[in-house]
Design goal:
This protein is α+β, with helices and mostly antiparallel strands. Among the domains are: 139 residues, no CATH class; 128 residues, no CATH class; 110 residues, no CATH class; 127 residues, no CATH class; 152 residues, no CATH class. Helix content is 42%, strand content 17%. The protein contains 28 helices and 32 strands. Strand 16 and strand 17 form a beta hairpin. Helix 3 runs antiparallel to helix 5 and helix 6 packs across helix 7. The longest helix has 35 residues.
Length: 973
């Protein structure tokens, strides 16, 4: 008898509630479809807004073709094998415990086998299609490949085969391999479930149909393995087995013939499996498979190892010489350093004072304003209002001012958001919509008090605007809001506060950037995209409104040209009155034959990328080819994106110009006013200097022995960080005039001295991209950056100046240590900034304290570079000696005063460490007396007070600062 609770069946799904599940499923499907449509359509609208819709549609088409192509291939092939296995099931199955256990599973699966198979195959197709769709760049590049015109020395194939064709063939092989392997697994499962395969019981373990079916599948797998072995031969050009990247002696003489033999053996083994269709038994296929495995171990593993150990190792240089030469040649080509000029330098320094003075007169302005330090200074002096901000790392450009071109430090006054306590949805998205103003300062001079001497700030102030900016509003920038509604919001978009009756200057956006949201559909889509109901409900949005989003320059260029790798530091420039962001784009590959591979992220990281947020870090992608192929611009007002072909010989760029036809403009279309602001990109230079630490050596013997290898020095001002390269205008030896360049130095490996100085022309023209390396004599290498920094800190007079700057809790902040070829030797220049003590409320900022200069053994500290250079060339400075004591032609009184000053400073520091305030007071008095004695002796005494600082910094006299914080200087005893 069966007992049933009344209504129990209805609660399980009878009646109206039976429709609940289908309705919920339908709603879920509709919701997912709506979100997919929202994402796809709003992306298309964004691409249309910048005129690059073909980029989006081309990508989408390629992804769909690969998704459905690979997915259907997987579903059809695996599904066909499942059907074949099911139809080949035996009519009668022997009675056994194993089959009785499987009967229960068959009873459950059989009634639903089509549903289960369909669901599993569908999931498999989606996973396969999604994975392969992500490889759309490989497919499109293969279809539009462009020859390099360079053949590899081993197989004599054009480099385009390795860059475009070989990756595509590996992708196809990978998909087919996966399809065959999954087909084998699916067939084995079905044959086992329905009795075609057995693990227990007497007799054959496989029925004849099952054996034939699986033999074909395994034969296909082995056949694919034969094809893979054949194409593996070409992969040897990327081998890491030898001394250098590329096919080595062992690869060419052992592994290459082994791969060919293995491909032939695999073909024979596949034929043995196929022959099983005509005969019963697995002995012949088993023998063939065993032979293939043993051959792979012996020929592919043991034999190359023996050749390497017993032929190559005893005479490695002789065996590897030609392969090392290949690596050197192709690596230098791949990274664009094959034209680098290496010249000896420093063996014959100029000693004639007249010639040195003539060279000093032609030196021009040295960029002593450090863009990596004065970000806070710009913030405090040019922010104007708390809702504006400047980046922590500024940029360097060149501008003609009064008939002369100057290195200038530039930045944009971008928006940080509505003031604290005044935020609302309307203010965040309709009022505070953009930044305002271009700010620049001379790179080679300072105003009074050590502050930057500004050229322009794009706000109506009394100073003359040297750089005219007709459109100062910044709607597209590195720190723009997530989205803004402009142009028709019914709100005045704030430019900046002033003293007008309204209290502010405002504007209404009239550019063509962004997407119109004049319809209910667009409002609904963007409300869903940003999960913000106000976009749908706000009555302030009228028919002229536009929504701006995804508007950082790097993001915009990346979406417009997804095939590019972008430099981490976009920079602004004023071109014909408009502010443009300039972004350098690279084409990269990891498939260039014989080229050394490196991590892009590791090669480009240094002090700036590790400690500053304004410069993006590169991903740790491995590359062995790099070209600065495209210069891109983004208009800061209307978001217009332009891509200009820069490297006209790069085959990868030509390939992608075929893929996305019409998106990249030819180099001839670059306006001259824009081209004058182009510069050599930093990340490319960092990669090239990393390569040239080894590949400046072009002789295979010297390369093998590691003779003369270099390394990039550590930043002397920041422990544990690599020194970044520096932009500066300088005159290289043999040149008539100074030019804007990007520079770096090298140390010998594990040696703090200087091995070489490297510069690359950074002004578009004849010398743009020309790398010059000044190699120092190995038997008389000058001091390196770390040693120079140490000499600044330990020199007697400089130490006294720095000590004076650091009084009252003031900190010194070292700027960039510039190295300049001068007089057959090297001139070192470092600005030393001071930053007053104070809390966050006082917001202290760096200003110039002193400029430190070293030339040969002479070291000086002065208020300006001109003064320092005059002293260092005129012999009025104190030469550094190994003992650290002053030398040169000084009077006895001056030498005694310097000795007393040095001792007093040391006593003060020791007393300060012990907290001995009476001792500190006594030492301070002796410091003052020694300075007075030095002045009386006719020497330049160091100042006793720090350079002007923001209010709130403590004074050296011991009196309280305006904020009330006591000075760290002890009272006089």
């Amino acid at each position: 008898m069966t007992f049933r609770t009344p209504g129990f069946g209805r609660r399980l799904g009878t009646g109206r509630t039976r429709l609940l599940l289908p309705v919920l499923v339908a709603l879920a499907v509709l919701l997912v479809a709506f979100m997919v449509f929202t994402s796809t359509y709003t992306d298309l609208l964004w691409y249309r807004s910048i005129g690059f819709s073909s980029v989006y549609t081309t990508q989408l088409q390629a992804k769909l073709v690969l998704f459905f192509g690979a997915g259907l291939l997987m579903v059809l092939v695996v599904g066909a094998n499942v059907v074949v296995a099911y139809r080949l099931r035996p009519a009668y199955r022997p009675l056994s415990v194993e089959q009785q256990g499987l009967e229960r599973y068959r009873a459950v699966i059989d009634p639903r086998r089509r549903l289960i198979a369909g669901a599993l195959l569908g999931a498999l197709g989606v996973l396969t299609g999604s994975s392969v769709a992500g490889q759309w760049p490989v497919w499109l590049a293969f279809l539009n490949r462009t020859p390099f015109g360079v053949k590899d020395p081993q197989f004599h194939k054009d480099v385009s085969f390795y860059v475009f064709t070989y990756p595509f063939l590996r992708l196809v092989l990978g998909v087919i391999f996966a399809t065959v392997i999954l087909s084998i697994l699916a067939a084995v499962m079905v044959h086992y479930l329905y009795g075609g395969l057995r693990l227990q019981g007497p007799g054959d373990k496989a029925s004849p149909p099952a054996r034939a079916h699986l033999s074909v599948l395994f034969g296909l797998f082995i056949l694919l393995k034969a094809v893979a072995y054949w194409f593996d031969r070409y992969g040897l050009v990327h081998s890491e087995r030898g001394v250098a990247t590329g096919a080595s002696y062992t690869d060419v003489n052992a592994l290459l013939p082994a791969k060919t033999i293995l491909a032939v053996i695999a073909l024979l083994c596949a034929a043995m499996f196929f022959s099983n269709l005509l005969r019963r038994g697995m002995m012949l296929p088993g023998v063939g498979f065993t032979l293939l495995v043993l051959s792979a171990i012996l020929l592919g593993g043991v034999y190359p190892l023996l050749i390497q150990q017993f032929q190559v190792k005893p005479d490695e240089l002789a065996k590897e010489r030609q392969y090392i030469q290949r690596n050197i040649q192709f690596t230098r080509q791949a990274y664009g350093v094959d034209g680098a000029k290496v010249v000896p330098y420093g063996s014959q320094p100029v000693t004639d004072k007249k010639k040195l003075q003539e060279e000093a007169d032609s030196l021009g302005g040295v960029r002593v304003l450090d863009p990596n330090v004065v970000g806070e200074t710009f913030q405090q002096l040019q922010r104007r209002r708390p809702f504006y901000r400047f980046p922590d790392t500024l940029d360097i450009d060149r501008y003609p001012i009064d008939g002369r071109t100057y290195d200038t430090i530039v930045a944009l006054r971008e928006l940080s958001g509505a003031p604290a306590g005044q935020r609302s949805w309307v203010k965040d998205h309709m009022v505070y919509t953009h930044g305002y103003g271009f700010v620049s300062a001379f790179g080679d001079r300072f105003a009074s008090g050590g502050e930057p001497q500004f050229v322009t700030n794009s706000m109506p102030v009394s100073q003359t605007q040297q750089i005219k900016v007709a459109q100062p509003e910044i709607y597209f920038g590195e720190r723009s809001p997530r989205y803004s509604v402009v142009g028709g919001s019914g709100q005045q978009e704030l430019n900046y506060p002033d003293n007008s009756p309204s209290g502010q200057q405002s504007s209404t956006y009239d550019g063509q950037g962004g997407v119109s949201i004049d319809s209910f559909l667009h409002k609904l889509l963007y409300s869903a995209k940003f999960q913000d109901k106000n976009l749908l409900l706000s009555g302030a949005i009228n028919k002229n409104a536009r929504i701006l989003y995804d508007r950082s320059p790097r993001e915009m260029v990346h979406k417009a040209a997804p095939w590019l790798t972008l430099d981490g530091d976009p920079y602004p420039a004023v071109v014909n009155g408009r502010i443009l962001w300039i972004v350098d784009g690279y084409t990269t590959s990891n498939s260039y034959p014989y080229s050394e591979e490196m991590s892009l992220g590791e090669a480009t990281h240094d002090t700036i990328t590790d400690t500053r947020s304004a410069v993006a870090r590169q991903a740790n992608d491995h590359i062995n080819y790099l070209r600065n192929s495209v210069k891109a611009t983004v208009d800061a007002y209307d978001g217009t994106v332009h891509l200009y072909q820069w490297d006209e010989n790069d085959p990868i760029t030509k390939t992608w110009m075929k893929v996305f036809d019409g998106t990249v403009q030819p180099r001839t279309s670059i306006p001259p006013e824009l081209e004058s602001h182009f510069r050599y990109p930093q990340d490319q230079f960092k990669v090239q200097r990393k390569i040239l630490t080894k590949y400046h050596v072009t002789d295979p013997s010297a390369f093998y022995n590691g003779e003369g290898f270099w390394e990039v020095p550590q930043d002397p001002t920041v422990k544990g960080k690599r020194q970044p390269p520096y932009y500066q205008s300088l005159r290289m030896p043999g040149e008539d005039a100074a030019s804007f360049s990007l520079t770096t130095v090298f140390n010998p490996v594990n040696n703090p001295q200087l091995a070489a100085f490297m510069a690359v022309g950074s002004t578009p023209g004849r010398d743009y991209g020309q790398i010059q390396i000044l190699q120092m004599p190995r038997n008389a290498q000058p001091t390196g950056p770390g040693q120079v920094q140490n000499s600044f800190e330990t020199d007697t007079q400089v130490k006294g100046d720095l000590f004076a700057l650091r009084q009252g809790g003031t900190k010194t902040v070292p700027g960039n240590l510039l190295t300049i070829p001068f007089g057959g030797d090297l001139l070192y220049v470092e600005p030393m900034y001071t930053k007053a003590a104070g809390g966050k409320e006082q917001e202290p900022y760096p200003i110039l304290g002193k400029i430190l200069v070293r030339y040969r053994e002479k070291i000086v500290a002065a208020d300006t570079f001109g003064e320092a250079l005059e002293q260092v060339l005129g012999g009025t400075s104190t030469p550094a000696s190994p003992s650290g004591t002053p030398g040169g032609q000084l009077s006895a009184a001056a030498q005694k005063a310097i000795s007393d000053l040095n001792k007093a400073v040391t006593d003060y520091e020791n007393a300060q460490k012990k907290g001995d305030y009476p001792g500190m007071g006594d030492a301070w008095k002796r410091i003052k007396d020694a300075q007075a004695a030095l002045t009386a002796a006719g020497q330049a005494a160091p100042k006793t007070t720090p350079s002007p600082a923001p209010s709130g910094s403590p004074s050296p006299s011991g009196s309280p600062s305006p904020s009330g914080s006591p000075s760290a200087t002890p009272p006089s005893s």
